[in-house]
Every structure is written in C-alpha cells, then in structure tokens.
Amino acid sequence: MSEPKRYAFKVNEENDFDLIEHSEGEYILYADYARLKAEVERLTKAGEMSGNNLKRCNCQECEDARKELHARIALKKGGQP
Description:
This protein has one domain. The mean pLDDT is 82. By secondary structure, the protein is of the alpha+beta class. Strands 2-1-3 form a 3-stranded antiparallel sheet. Strand 1 (6-11) and strand 2 (17-21) form a beta hairpin. 54% of the residues lie in helices and 16% in strands. The two termini are 31 Å apart.
C-alpha cells in the first residue's frame, strides 16, 4: 500500500489559500481516505478470523499465540495483560 499524498493550505500573494502538496499536511484526498479505511477494515477482519482460527487449535504454539494476542488487546485497551 502506498502512502497517500498529503496536502496543506498556503496563503498566496493575493491573501487567498492554495492547496499544496506537503509531506506533513493535515489533508488527504477522499479517495485515499476511502482506500485506507477499506484496508483497515480488511485487516481488522483478517485479524478477527485469525483469532478465531487460534481458538480451534490446542497445540502449545497456538496457546502461546492466544496469550500474546490477549496481552496485546489488553495493552491496546489500556489495561494490564
């Protein structure tokens, strides 16, 4: 996935605003936003499916992966693992 182009406003000589490409701009094109949102949703779904697959297996490797997953989720929610 490529990085979206970022944009910022700049005041021109007529005291109007021009939209310019800027590496740290606060704006991106809606098409890039929609693409990124779809990618996040796809990865979230894939992560959930992966978690469901871990529930089916009882081997030590999957048990360790479940513990790691639960610890990450707890940290993400601001709790303790």
